[in-house]
Specification:
- The protein contains 8 helices and 14 strands.
- The chain is α/β, with parallel strands linked by helices and 255 residues long.
- The chain has one domain: 4-Layer Sandwich (Metallo-beta-lactamase, Chain A).
- The strands form 3 sheets. The protein has a 6-stranded mixed sheet, covered by helices on one side. A 6-stranded mixed sheet has the order 7-8-9-10-13-14. A two-stranded antiparallel sheet has the order 11-12.
- Strand 2 and strand 3 form a beta hairpin.
- It binds zinc ion (ZN).
- It holds the Pfam family Lactamase_B.
- Keywords: Hydrolase, Metal-binding, Zinc.
- GO terms for molecular function: hydroxyacylglutathione hydrolase activity; metal ion binding.
Length: 255
C-alpha cells in the first residue's frame, strides 16, 4: 500500500510524497524547497528514501542539495542529459524503475523543457509540468509538435489513472478551458467541484485521466468543436492536431 501526500511549496507547487506503509519508504517528487519536506518528514516520523525529478527547473530541484546534506546516500532519479546536475540515476524513455513498490515506466515528454520525463504507472502518474489539470506546461524549450506527441502518449493511460502534476494551476486552467468549450457540461461540473476544494484550501489534485480527457483542451485537439471559439488572430485554417495545440497554447499564453 502506498499513499501519496501533497507537501505545499512556494505559492502553488506541490512536492508529492510517496509513502509506503510496509517498508516505511518515503520518496519526494520535484522538491523545489527542502524545508517543507523536512517538516513533513518530522511530522510523520519518517526518513527520506529517495528523490524523483521530472525536469531541471529550479522550482523542482532547488531543495535537492539541502535534502542530500541530511540524507547523503539516497538516490536522485531524473532525466538523462538534464541541465540539473544533481541526478545520480539518469533515466531514459521506456526505462523501468520501482519506487516504494510501484513499478514506474519512464516516458520522455519534451515540450515544456527538452529534458522532461514523467513517471507512469497504470494507477499513478507524476506528470510534472507536462500535463496539468485542465492544461499543459508552457513551451519554454520544446515545440508544439513535441508537446502534442508527449500529451498523446499520456492520453493513452487508463481512465482511472490518478494524475499528480506539480502546480495548483487548475482554476486558471479551467477558466481558459471554459473559454475554449463553453458548452462542455462535464467541465462546468468539474469547475464547481474545484472551486469547493479551493475554498476549503484543499488541492484539486490528483485528477484522473478520465476527467482530463473530458475537460482538458490540450488533450482534446481531435474534437471537432475545439476551434469554434478561437480568437480572430488565430483563425487561419489548421488541419493537424499539433497545429491546433499550438494555437491553443498561444491563446492560453495571452489569456
Ligand atoms: Zn517547469
Amino acid at each position: 500500500m502506498v499513499q501519496v501526500e501533497p507537501i505545499k511549496a512556494f505559492n502553488d507547487n506541490y512536492i508529492w510524497a510517496i509513502c509506503s506503509q510496509h517498508e516505511q519508504q518515503t520518496w519526494v517528487v520535484d522538491p523545489g524547497q527542502s524545508q517543507p519536506v523536512f517538516t513533513f518528514l518530522k511530522a510523520h516520523n519518517r526518513t527520506l528514501s529517495g528523490i524523483l525529478i521530472t525536469h531541471h527547473h529550479w522550482d523542482h530541484t532547488d531543495g535537492v542539495a539541502e535534502l542530500l546534506l541530511q540524507f547523503p546516500d539516497i538516490p536522485v532519479y531524473g532525466p538523462k542529459d538534464s541541465k540539473f546536475t544533481g541526478i545520480t540515476h539518469p533515466l531514459s524513455h521506456d526505462d523501468n524503475v520501482t519506487i516504494a513498490g510501484i513499478a514506474f515506466k519512464i516516458v520522455e515528454t519534451p515540450g515544456h523543457t527538452l529534458d522532461h520525463i514523467c513517471y507512469i504507472d497504470e494507477q499513478i502518474a507524476f506528470t510534472g509540468d507536462t500535463l496539468f489539470s485542465g492544461g499543459c506546461g508552457r513551451l519554454f524549450e520544446g515545440t508544439a509538435k513535441q508537446m502534442w506527441h508527449s500529451l498523446e502518449s499520456l492520453k493513452q493511460l487508463p481512465s482511472a489513472c490518478q494524475i499528480y502534476c506539480t502546480h495548483e494551476y487548475t482554476l486558471a486552467n479551467l477558466a481558459f478551458a471554459q473559454a475554449v468549450e463553453p458548452e462542455n457540461q462535464i467541465l462546468s461540473e468539474h469547475i464547481a467541484w474545484c472551486q469547493q476544494q479551493r475554498e476549503k484550501d484543499l488541492p484539486t489534485l490528483p485528477t484522473s485521466m478520465e476527467i482530463e480527457r473530458a475537460i482538458n483542451p490540450f488533450l482534446r485537439t481531435d474534437q471537432a468543436k475545439i476551434l469554434a471559439h478561437l480568437p480572430v488572430y488565430l483563425q487561419e485554417p489548421s488541419d493537424l492536431d499539433w497545429q491546433i495545440l499550438s494555437k491553443l497554447r498561444l491563446w492560453k499564453d495571452n489569456f
